[in-house]
Amino acid sequence: AQRVTQPEKLLSVFKGAPVELKCNYSYSGSPELFWYVQYSRQRLQLLLRHISRESIKGFTADLNKGETSFHLKKPFAQEEDSAMYYCALSPTSGTYKYIFGTGTRLKVLA
Amino acid sequence: DAGVTQSPTHLIKTRGQHVTLRCSPISGHKSVSWYQQVLGQGPQFIFQYYEKEERGRGNFPDRFSARQFPNYSSELNVNALLLGDSALYLCASSLAVDRAGYTFGSGTRLTVV
């Protein structure tokens, strides 16, 4: 079954501390993985895609096919990083739907 | 560009009623997808349309239907509303049917009472 698991509903860190938001997926093929972010009172927006291998707002994510993980990391958290983060998977074949995880709320404390 | 626009923003309906939600994609985007987001959960895929054709359907009952118009706007229809249909309905658009990443609208908050 295709599934995205985000084990933490809430993650609280202090400003300046490293952040790691966990994402594990279940899919037999080679999916494309994404991280979406939703800031307070804003719409869901794309943060980054694994295929781009880019760093957005200091965040990076590496696809680990062996561990079927796509964890989101940032070395030094900022207060403006506080938001809801969703990991999403897009299968390589069939419909181009996204399968979302349940999300992790990141709170960066001053 | 106004981005992906959805209407209405909020809606209250009674069980058994019918509802129509509307979405206008970003200018030039030909693909529209619909997602349902229940409180505390991630968005769940309902439909994808591209060039007015249904390209994908999620695990939702036949009470849910959608269509895409020649101008690429889209409607999501839900018949015989149930309390469990209460959710945020999100529309997302993209240039084509691909995995480049969608742009989401702000959603329509549907409450069924």
Can you characterise this structure?
The complex is a heterodimer of chains A (110) and B (113). Chain A is mainly β and 110 residues long. Chain A has strands at 3-5, 10-14, 19-21, 24-26, 32-38, 45-49, 60-61, 72-74, 83-90, 99-100, 104-109. The radius of gyration of chain A is 13 Å and the shape is globular. Chain A starts with a strand and ends with a strand. The relative contact order of chain A is 0.35. In chain B, the strands form two sheets. In chain B, strands 2, 4, 5, 6, 9, 10 and 11 form a seven-stranded mixed beta sheet that branches. In chain B, strands 1-3-8-7 form a four-stranded antiparallel beta sheet, with no helix packed on it. Chain B is globular. The mean pLDDT of chain B is 93. Helix content of chain B is 0%, strand content 50%. Chain B has strands at residues 5-7, 10-13, 19-24, 31-37, 44-50, 53-57, 64-68, 74-78, 87-94, 103-104, 108-112. By secondary structure, chain B is mostly beta strands. Classes of the chains: A mainly beta (110), B mainly beta (113). The A-B interface holds A 4, 32, 34, 36, 43-46, 49, 51, 86, 88, 90, 94-103 and B 3, 31, 33, 35, 40-45, 48, 55-58, 90, 97-107.
Measured distance between first and last alpha carbons of chain B: 36 Å
Beta strand count of chain A: 11
Instruction: State mean pLDDT of chain B (0 to 100 scale).
Output: 93
> How many E-type strands of chain B?
11
Greatest interface by residues involved: A-B, 23 and 27 residues
Compute the separation of the termini of chain A in Å. 40 Å
Class inferred from helices and paired strands of chain B: mainly beta
**What is the rounded Rg of chain B?**
13 Å
Any idea what the shape of chain B is? globular
> Mind describing the biggest β-sheet of chain A?
6 strands, mixed
Order of helices and strands of chain B: EEEEEEEEEEE
Proportion of residues in β-strands of chain B: over 45%
Average pLDDT for all residues of chain A: 91
Rg of chain A, rounded, reads 13 Å
Order of secondary-structure elements of chain A: EEEEEEEEEEE
pLDDT under 50 segments of chain A (min length 5)? none
Helical coverage of chain A, percent range:
under 10%
**Mass-distribution shape of chain A:** globular
Instruction: Enumerate how many helices of chain B there are, as a single number.
Output: 0
